[in-house]
């Protein structure tokens, strides 16, 4: 069964002249995937850093650590570098080194970050997290990549 991303696409299409409300876009994404926490980062091409554009559910103390992320560091940086989805079934017990140790402070578990790709070029990342351990399915990853492409169509 295909995951219906229609609500997210509608929010992206009904944007104001100044652009979409990225926090509202993220809220719709979190609802669709039954997640509690999420981030959208856009690539700052001049600095080669991922800059936080929207977030939901992150502890206030955590925000300075995720405002700017180097390519190759943490889940967002690795997803951008590899140009593919990166996931951790449980951030609280992860020993892969993909997630930064400070990710445990979020008190969430099943996490995935997908790159925002358009024509092979990286524009940023989209990360979502569940409160429980979760392995994202192929269908879920495809739907997230579809949402990512729609985001790129708005920002490119």
Write the layout of secondary structure elements.
Blueprint: H1 6-13, H2 22-32, E1 37-44, E2 49-56, H3 63-66, E3 68-70, H4 74-82, E4 86-88, E5 111-118, E6 121-129, H5 138-155
Antiparallel strand pairs: 1-2, 1-6, 2-3, 4-5, 5-6
Helix pairs in contact: 1-2, 1-5
Structure characterization notes:
The termini are far apart. The protein has a single domain (6-155), classed as GAF domain (Beta-Lactamase). It is an alpha+beta fold and 156 residues long. The chain has 5 helices and 6 strands. The chain has helices spanning 6-13, 22-32, 63-66, 74-82, 138-155, and strands at 37-44, 49-56, 68-70, 86-88, 111-118, 121-129. The chain is globular. Helix content is 32%, strand content 25%. Strands 3-2-1-6-5-4 form a 6-stranded antiparallel beta sheet.
Using brief descriptors, characterize the structure shown.
156 residues, alpha+beta, six-stranded antiparallel β-sheet, 6 strands, globular
């Amino acid at each position: 069964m295909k995951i219906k991303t229609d609500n997210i696409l509608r929010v992206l299409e009904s944007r104001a002249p100044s652009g979409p409300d990225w926090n509202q876009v993220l809220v719709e994404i979190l609802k669709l995937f039954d997640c509690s926490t999420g981030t959208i980062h856009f690539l700052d091409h001049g600095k080669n850093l991922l800059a936080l554009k929207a977030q939901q559910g992150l502890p206030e103390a955590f925000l300075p650590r995720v405002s700017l992320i180097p390519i190759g560091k943490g889940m967002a940086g690795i997803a951008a570098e590899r140009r593919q989805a990166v996931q951790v079934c449980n951030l609280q017990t992860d020993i892969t080194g993909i997630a930064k140790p400070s990710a445990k402070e979020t008190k969430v578990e099943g996490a995935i970050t997908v790159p925002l790709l358009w024509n092979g070029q990286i524009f940023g990342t989209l990360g979502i997290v569940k409160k429980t351990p979760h392995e994202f399915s192929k269908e879920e990853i495809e739907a997230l990549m579809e949402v990512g492409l729609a985001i790129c169509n708005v920002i490119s």
